[in-house]
Design goal:
The protein is built from eleven helices and ten strands. By secondary structure, it is an alpha/beta fold. The longest helix has 21 residues.
């Protein structure tokens, strides 16, 4: 790849299921101090995709509905998720509700194996992904770096994979960088998004320097002392990591 090709590659938009995006940061919407701070964080991060947990917010009744209305007032793409679902049936039902509420076929699919680590249930994940794909959903599966599971998810109809960096909310960074790098090299043409476990902008930069296409952040921004400034920091660092990857590390 020559210098001109690299420069073009660095500035090319990301694409999910035919939707082109200018930002490589996906931002979660849970645990912020207030809806106002969340809104500022979304604005200052310049992200174009936000995730929202249908089950968590629906449980809040009227407050949850106001939150859904707020999100839809932003100029962003909504990626509903099935957080908290323990079985394929639960996840499929939640996805159907999300499609009706938000009018989108996008769904971040989570089928959780246990409450301690919130590790994906890979068997249930593949089952649910296949059924949702047959129902016309564009599935973004929250998975691990397991290559066998990844191949089955792609065969089930997924066009994007979201492997974890570490267990959700831990902020540990990349627990298995070798496995993530292997996954990137094994699927060079599949959009890959590191999701979960990112605790600092430097962790996100590491993902991007490996060649990952985007990073999903929630807790590290929401729980920061200044979530708005932290959102800016992640946006800047993700872009720098992408430029470093395209430039060609020594």
């Amino acid at each position: 790849m020559d210098i001109v090709e690299r420069n073009i590659s660095a500035t090319q938009d990301l694409s999910f299921y035919g939707k082109r995006l200018g930002s490589r940061l996906l931002l979660g919407t849970a645990q912020y101090p207030s809806p106002a701070i969340l809104g500022l964080a979304v604005e200052q991060s310049k992200c174009e995709v936000v995730t929202v947990s249908l089950r968590r917010e629906a449980a809040r009744g009227g407050a949850g509905q106001r939150f859904f209305d707020l999100i839809q007032s932003w100029n962003v793409n909504v990626l509903p998720n099935t957080a908290g679902c323990r079985t394929p049936k639960e996840a499929i039902t939640t996805a159907q509700m999300a499609r009706a509420l938000f009018g989108t076929t996008w769904i971040k699919l989570e089928v959780i194996a246990n409450d301690d680590t919130l590790q994906p249930d890979l068997f249930g994940l593949v089952e649910a992904a296949g059924e949702l794909s047959r129902q016309g959903f564009d599935v973004f599966p929250y998975t691990t770096e397991d290559l066998g599971a990844a191949e089955r998810l792609l065969a089930a109809g997924c066009e994007v994979l979201m492997p974890w960096g570490a267990p959700i909310g831990t902020g540990r960074g990349l627990a298995n960088p070798y496995g993530l790098l292997t996954m990137r090299n094994y699927f060079p043409d599949i959009p890959l998004v590191v999701d979960a476990g990112i605790g600092a902008p430097s962790h996100a930069a590491q993902c991007m320097e490996m060649g990952y296409d985007a990073v999903m952040i929630n807790t590290a921004v929401a729980k920061a002392g200044d979530p708005v400034l932290m959102a800016q920091a992640f946006a800047t660092t993700i872009e720098a990591g992408r430029q470093a990857y395209v430039s060609g590390l020594m």
